[in-house]
């Protein structure tokens, strides 16, 4: 789309009652074009303007001048907007959903405007905005109906700011909370969440390195929790076993949790019969024993990612065929001990499998793949050696840090 097309839209007789408009990636549109669009389509309720590096405050002011019925807007990947644009956007409008991502200019003032003018906000996503601090979160106390809060990559947030939110009107109502890479939060926040946010169903605490087993264990006491993402945390078997006290959990992601072993996963699986989504990729201590327990305890599993688990062999796949009859997605990338036997197993089972990922499977031959791979399965395959960041070689031997650094230096040269 360009300004010319929007001028046609403004002067024509059609499309004046549009309620949904997506202008993502239309970087040719200028302030003039947005102004014409505002006049032509003033019934718009849902507006999406993602991936617009050319979007400025003037564009937003011109666009929303006549959008009094606007209820949701997405501004992902618009790095040149300032607080003034957010103020113009939310002022005198009853927005219930707003998404902003990758912006280094907006500050706590934007949160102040959002919370002042949009007290009925239900979905608030402000991600990768490093100037958002605890001061801004204090304004969220006034929001009454917030059910989704996504503050991923807002790295300056701490327990203090998030406590303000939990103690606010929406604390007991919030269902989804994403604090990925909010590296300053600690167990204190989890204690507050368990006390106040009892309706939480989805939580993400990826790479929150200050969370300990004592705090993570508390998540198992949330009565409605169904999805947990703890990627890259320091959790151990003790807290993983404690999570299984909630029988409603259907989705667990613990990728890159290096301290997780067979013992912890086995204890979790024994009590998680409703699990249908599991990602344990890059948990290098896991072996066939935990997959055996998983296969016969979690029979409703539809998604499984065991990539970069070098101890996994063909035996694990035999267990999965025997127990997980509903599996639709399987990722065994980097399972360097899996061999061509997998193709025989595919003939016997995995009838519902739709997608199979087998990158860096060094013992699976290209000839066997070409001849025996089932045509009805979408597959990604190569048998290259695993990349250095996997942490082990093509035989499954762990690469020490000194050796890894030396090889990386040789590659750079």
From TrEMBL:
Domain F-box/LRR-repeat protein 15-like leucin rich repeat: 144-350
A Pfam cross-reference name: DUF7885
One GO term describing the cellular component: SCF ubiquitin ligase complex
Any GO BP: SCF-dependent proteasomal ubiquitin-dependent protein catabolic process
InterPro entries to which the protein is assigned, alphabetical: FBXL15_LRR (IPR057207), Leu-rich_rpt_Cys-con_subtyp (IPR006553), LRR_dom_sf (IPR032675)
Superkingdom of the organism of origin: Eukaryota
Classification via Gene3D superfamilies: Ribonuclease Inhibitor
Protein name: F-box and leucine-rich repeat protein 13
Organism of this sequence: Callorhinchus milii
Taxonomic classification: Eukaryota, Metazoa, Chordata, Craniata, Vertebrata
């Amino acid at each position: 789309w360009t300004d010319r097309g929007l001028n046609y839209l403004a002067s024509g007789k059609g499309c004046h009652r549009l309620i949904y408009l997506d202008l993502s990636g239309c970087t040719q549109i200028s302030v003039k074009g947005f102004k014409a669009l505002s006049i032509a389509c003033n019934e718009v309720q849902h507006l999406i303007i993602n991936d617009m590096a050319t979007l400025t405050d003037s564009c937003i002011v011109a666009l929303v001048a006549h959008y009094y019925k606007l209820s949701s807007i997405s501004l992902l990947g618009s790095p040149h907007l300032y607080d003034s644009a957010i103020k113009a956007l939310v002022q005198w409008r009853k927005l219930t959903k707003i998404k902003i991502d990758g912006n280094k200019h907006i500050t706590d003032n934007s949160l102040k405007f959002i919370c002042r003018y949009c007290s009925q906000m239900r979905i608030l996503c402000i991600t990768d905005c490093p100037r958002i601090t605890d001061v801004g979160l204090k304004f969220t106390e006034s929001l009454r109906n917030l059910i989704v809060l996504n503050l991923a990559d807002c790295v300056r947030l701490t327990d203090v700011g998030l406590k303000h939110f939990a103690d606010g009107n929406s604390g007991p109502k919030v269902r989804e909370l994403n604090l990925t890479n909010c590296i300053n939060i600690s167990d204190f926040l989890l204690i507050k969440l368990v006390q106040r946010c009892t309706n939480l169903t989805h939580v993400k605490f990826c790479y929150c390195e200050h969370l300990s087993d004592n705090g993570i264990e508390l998540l198992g006491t949330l009565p409605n929790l169904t999805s947990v993402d703890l990627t890259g945390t320091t959790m151990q078997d003790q807290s993983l076993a404690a999570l299984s006290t909630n029988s409603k959990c259907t989705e667990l992601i613990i990728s890159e949790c290096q301290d997780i072993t067979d013992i912890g996963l086995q204890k979790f699986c024994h009590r998680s019969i409703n699990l249908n989504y599991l990602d344990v990729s890059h948990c290098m201590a896991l072996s066939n024993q935990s997959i055996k327990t998983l296969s016969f305890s979690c029979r409703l599993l539809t998604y499984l990612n065991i990539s970069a688990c070098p101890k996994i062999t063909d035996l694990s796949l035999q267990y999965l065929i025997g127990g997980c009859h509903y599996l639709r997605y399987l990722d065994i990338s980097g399972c360097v001990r899996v061999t061509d036997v997998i193709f025989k197993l595919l003939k016997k089972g995995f009838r519902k499998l739709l997608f199979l990922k087998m990158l860096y499977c060094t013992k699976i031959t290209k000839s066997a793949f070409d001849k025996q791979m089932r045509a009805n399965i979408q597959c990604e395959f190569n048998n290259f050696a695993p990349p250095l960041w996997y942490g082990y070689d093509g035989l499954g031997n762990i690469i020490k840090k000194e050796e890894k650094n030396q090889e990386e230096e040789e590659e750079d040269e």
